[in-house]
Amino acid sequence: MSTEDKRALLGHFLAALAYRTQKALRDAPDDFGSFLMAEGVRTPAELVRHMTSVLGYARTHFIGGHYWPEALSSFDEEIVRFHEMLGTLAQHLRNGDELLDGMTEERLLQGPFSDAMTHAGQLALLRRLAGAPVPPENFIVAEIRPDRLGRDQANPVSPDKVWPEAPKDWKP
Amino acid sequence: MSSPWVSDDKRELLRHTVATLAYRGGKAIKNAPPDFKDFRVSDGARTPGEILAHIGDLLDWALSIASGKQTWHDSTPLPWDDECARFFAGLQAFDAYLASDSPLAASAEKLFQGPVADALQHVGQINILRRAAGGPIKGENYFRAEIEAGRVGSDQSSQRIEFD
């Protein structure tokens, strides 16, 4: 299998993760980072740090060592660090850097990359529970690009016109 | 939607993603607490039964996009065990199409960024609801999990490195 093609698709995976994470975070209430759904459930700030942690773990398979991010003092800083990690990891993919210790593209995908995507879904759920749900859209036409991994993500190309669970003040 | 050429390599990695969805989704729905299907954490939030039905709809949608006959259908949730069976049937149908010689009517990137990524996100939501409902799943080192393209049924590997 061609490593180049696989890495291109992994790069798109990271771009989709950037897009979907920002969708869950953009215009969130000021105190969303500390929203606690229930005892034992991670807050959004803890989730973003964990997402950074699993992606940092993925990066260790390019550079060696260990990665264990300390908690930062604000949710905003956590988000900035998350996007920086996305960019760093994507650069390793683009560079064609060698994977260490028998790691493969498939294992990156099934492990840390997919882990982060499931947590992005949890952020979206927490947004709803925090009283500020995220409007649905048709993601297949979303403007997701492998070179766009930062906080500044595109607005939806095709937002849903019907949203049965919409808040009362929602306008399509 | 255009009919882009999709390399066999990307197609295979997309199949691996579908297998990952089967493994992770299978773990999220297996041995769920009684009445978990109808657990509603707050007004306006979907129940696990509604989320799983939506995942089934996403897999049907994925197959329709791949085969060039895009259709969407909102289904009514089935009893939990039936919805679980529908989940794996949807995965198997989509994977069988990806494994075939039939052309893909959308790129691997589009199929991933739409229905497949959506379904992965919803699996994460079922996981967090499992915890809130008092029946959490164990964490796991997924990068060592026995996940392979084509293994998309309910019979997933039991060789797992789980955390207590």
Account of the protein in words:
The complex is a heterodimer of chains A (172) and B (164). Chain A is mainly alpha-helical. Chain A has four helices and no strands. The longest helix of chain A has 25 residues, at 105-129. The model of chain A has no long low-confidence stretch (mean pLDDT 95). Helix content of chain B is 52%, strand content 2%. Chain B contains four helices and two strands. Chain B has a two-stranded antiparallel sheet with strand order 1-2. Chain B is globular.
Keywords for this entry:
heterodimer; A: 172 residues; mainly alpha; 4 helices; B: 164 residues; two-stranded antiparallel sheet; 2% strand
Query: How many separate helices of chain B?
Result: 4
Most strands sheet of chain A: none
The total count of strands of chain B amounts to 2
Q: How are the strands ordered across the major sheet of chain B?
A: 1-2
Oligomer: heterodimer
- What would the principal axes of the Cα set say about the shape of chain A? globular
Question: What's a quick, concise take on this entry?
Answer:
The complex is a heterodimer of chains A (172) and B (164). In chain A, 52% of the residues lie in helices and 0% in strands. By secondary structure, chain A is an all-alpha fold.
SSE blueprint:
The complex is a heterodimer of chains A (172) and B (164).
Chain A: H1 3-25, H2 44-63, H3 75-95, H4 105-129
Chain B: H1 8-29, H2 48-66, H3 80-99, H4 108-132, E1 139-140, E2 162-163
Antiparallel strand pairs in B: 1-2
